[in-house]
From TrEMBL:
Protein's recorded name: Glutathione S-transferase
Ranges for domain GST N-terminal: 1-74
PANTHER family assigned: GLUTATHIONE S-TRANSFERASE GSTA, GLUTATHIONE S-TRANSFERASE-RELATED
Alphabetical list of InterPro entries matching this protein: Glutathione-S-Trfase_C-like, Glutathione-S-Trfase_C_sf, Glutathione_S-Trfase, Glutathione_S-Trfase_N, GST_C, Thioredoxin-like_sf
Domain (GST C-terminal) ranges: 79-204
Coiled coil (UniProt feature): none
Native organism: Pseudoalteromonas piscicida
Length: 204
């Protein structure tokens, strides 16, 4: 049984969706209800996944651990090059798209004055929109980043894409990306994950 530490709507949502896709049992713990969370992860960040023996941190590393451990169609195993391309897409999501959205959260926390903050938000949105154009190009010949079937990186991007709505900026999601995101969001694993986060939230 896994334990997943999360915050509602944050990047651990992707970890939960993958746990459901892999049909692995888990319990959810809202980080805000944990005394001394820094003892669990010194960076203070979620996701943290406990597998009963080990406490695992860093979202992409956690996903690769789960995908290497449990049988699935979300990470190619037989072809080394295909596997490498899938890992590349996971890291594009985790280490390029996620930090691009982080700038919106950072500016909102760091700049109290709305007028002073807005140019930073807009500059961040320009960079995010450029990344979505790159994803649109990757989807020119295929429905998902991994090909015909949903891949781990698609799920991660679907989680991050939801964050744009929190900010007063125009995030432009191109057509093929929109279709891909809608298909991921319609998956039972995604719908159930959002519902479970709300049900377990310390806000609930
Ligand atoms: N490099 C880390 C970053 C994780 C991260 O930025 N988590 C955010 C949520 S998406 C977080 O924990 N924010 C809460 C905070 O900073 O207090 C990873 O990929 O796991």
């Amino acid at each position: 049984m896994y334990t997943l530490y999360y915050l509602p709507g944050a990047c651990a949502l992707a970890t939960q969706v993958i746990l459901r896709e892999l049909r692995q049992p888990f319990e959810l713990v809202d980080k805000r209800g944990v005394d001394n969370f820094l003892a669990i992860n010194p960076t203070g960040k979620i996701p943290v996944l406990n597998d009963g023996e080990n406490s695992l941190v860093e979202g992409a590393a956690i996903l690769l651990y789960l995908l290497n451990k449990h049988e699935n169609n979300l990470l190619p195993q037989a072809d080394v090059f295909q596997k490498q391309k899938a890992i590349e897409n996971i890291l594009f999501a985790n280490a390029t798209m996620h930090p691009a959205y982080n700038r919106l959260f950072f500016a909102t926390g760091a700049i109290a004055d709305e007028h002073a903050r807005q140019p930073f938000l807009e500059a961040a949105a320009v960079a995010i929109n450029e990344l979505w154009v790159l994803v649109e190009k990757k989807l020119a010949q295929q429905a998902f980043l991994g090909g015909d079937q949903v891949s781990t990186a698609d799920i991660m991007l679907a989680v991050y894409a939801r964050w744009g709505a929190y900010f007063p900026v125009d995030i432009v999601i191109p057509e093929k990306v929109s279709k891909m995101l809608a298909e991921v969001e319609a998956r039972p694993s995604f719908i159930a994950s959002i519902a479970a986060e709300q049900a377990h939230s310390t806000d609930a």
